[in-house]
Design a protein that fits this description.
The protein is an all-alpha fold. Helix content is 66%, strand content 0%. The two termini are 45 Å apart.
């Protein structure tokens, strides 16, 4: 339990502090992990019986569960919004946390174990857990509804990989909410059947399932390639009948679109999906790449990915990330393919290139 707390908390901090494309959105996921980690600390403290040895622990609000639901919602809001969705009035979503804190500190008269383990406080904890579950399920519903609305926009030109990412995110949120919904039978049994005297060990299975699923989501989010979800109008491009005077212009336009859309970051990008994204015929796209740019599709895409890796190699903020991690973050999904493409573009292996940068 302690080891998993350290690992999960570490990735939560990384999501909050690491400068990435979706940093603002990732911060809310990082907060969720840290909130649940703090809540799990309460389980550890109870299990080890450290209350009498460290009285100050009575005054630490380990439970901040009423903020999890809003964090889920604002993660999806940032991922699907063109502008900053968080305003001053958005803080009202976190107002229930103040109520939770007021009740918590108001229940501690002298900070003794007898005052902490009162029937009133046990009842309050049950009520807070109940409200937290309802909050998480409600915000999860609103988040999934927002994601589905975004994916079904008539003018959304998302490639298949992005739709897959949207569905995967919706599914993860629903599973997370379902796990919290399982908390209700536990607390009802504790209240009705055992009068709040069930041991923390009785709750361990659910504690562990919720915690490990949260950590898994956090690690997966941190390690995955960040796909840009962009809602935009589909631009229809008609191929000219005459190829002699426009071929080079088509190639230049394609290069500009690749830079602006950053489609190469999608590790599952294919000729068909790129053609769908650009709203042109796949055969016409292939002809442009072959005739105007004198490249194969794979070489054309990998060239942009290599350039993205080189930018990261020269950026101090990526100094602690491995070259392979940069490659996966830039759209590659195979170490062999990356090494071969890197050598073809730069004439050096990734190791040789990085050593050359480090050599004064």
């Amino acid at each position: 339990m302690v080891v998993s707390l350290i690992i999960g908390s570490t990735f939560g901090v990384l999501l909050i502090l690491t400068k990435r494309k979706h940093r603002n959105a990732n911060r809310f996921v990082g907060c969720i992990v840290l909130i649940i980690a703090l809540w799990q600390c309460l389980v550890v403290v109870n299990s080890w019986g450290t209350w009498d040895s460290y009285p100050f622990l009575y005054w630490i609000p380990f439970s901040n569960l009423l903020t999890i639901g809003p964090c889920i919602y604002f993660y999806t809001a940032y991922r699907t919004a063109q502008e900053n969705p968080f305003e001053w009035r958005s803080l009202l979503h976190f107002f229930p946390l103040l109520i939770e804190w007021l009740f918590f500190f108001g229940s501690h008269e002298k900070g003794s174990l007898e005052n902490y383990q009162t029937y009133t406080l046990f009842s309050a904890r049950f009520l807070i857990h109940l409200i937290a579950v309802l909050s998480i399920c409600t915000y999860a519903y609103l988040s999934v509804k927002r994601l589905r609305s975004f994916a079904s926009k008539k003018h959304s030109a998302e490639p298949p990989a992005n739709h897959t990412a949207l569905r995967s995110t919706s599914r993860a949120i629903l599973i997370f909410a379902s796990l919290w919904a399982l908390w209700l039978p536990y607390v009802l049994i504790d209240q009705i059947g055992f009068n709040y005297y069930m041991s923390d060990y009785d709750f361990y299975p659910l504690y562990l399932v919720i915690w490990f699923y949260t950590v898994w989501m956090c690690i997966r989010l941190f390690l995955q390639v960040e796909i840009v979800w962009v809602e935009k109008s589909r631009k229809r491009t008609t191929l000219p009948k005459s190829k002699s005077d426009t071929l080079l212009q088509q190639g230049k336009s394609l290069q500009e679109q690749m830079i602006q859309g950053r489609y190469y970051l999608n590790s599952d990008l294919t000729l068909q999906s790129l053609a769908t994204e650009l709203a042109i015929n796949p055969h016409a796209l292939s002809q442009t790449i072959n005739d105007a740019l004198n490249q194969r599709f794979s070489d054309f895409v990998n060239e942009y990915r290599i350039k993205a890796v080189i930018e990261k190699l020269n950026d101090p903020q990526y100094a602690n990330i491995t070259v392979l991690g940069m490659a996966y973050d830039s759209g590659f999904n195979s170490k062999t393919t990356f090494n071969r493409a890197f050598k073809k573009v730069t004439g050096k292996t990734p190791k040789e290139y990085r050593e050359q940068l480090l050599d004064p």
